[in-house]
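PROTEIN DATA CARD
Card holder: Methyltransferase domain-containing protein
Chain length: 203
Origin: Pomacea canaliculata
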Amino acid sequence: MGNWLVCFDDNLVPQNNCLVYSFGIDYDFSFDDAMAAIGCTVYSFDPSMLDTADHKRGDRVFFQRIGISDKDDDHFVPRVDRYVKKHPAVKGWPMRRLQTILDLLGHRKEQLTVLKLDIEGYEWNVTRDLLDSGILSSVPQFLVEWHLFKDFPPRERVPDAVDTYFRLNDMGFQLFVTGGFYQGSATSLRLTGEVAYLNTNRN
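Structure generated from the sequence above:
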């Protein structure tokens, strides 16, 4: 679907009441538009798109210029990467926990069909928060791009990241797609894994 793979076996993506949250856009709505084209309502989130206001992109796609985090913060200062260099976060970014966003949009009692995270290294803390809070246990499909950089997550947090990765499996999330790439040199490292999970406890 666009630039992400989604599982449709056994009607895992219903034609009615399909709700998708997509975090990390960088102006590429191909996944979001593709999911909307099959009848899903899609909410797209990216706090780095500073020149883009909240808006209704199409009949079923809604953009919100906020990001997902493990804590609510109105002035989050991100690490400087290629995205932040393009759009410096002078006043910080508005960030919210998933629970807060569901309440904000009136979706607390609705079922998320697909949750997608492509948030440049912050997915480790966010996923841990989703697991700790129990909110991820109700999500049928979880798509995430894992990132490891030379300096992020900080070295002392890498064991937590490893624990988070394996906790997903322990919670019943089964990989059905894996892909990624490695870019490394003597001075830099970028390891990216684009993966998709099915929640076997939900399906």
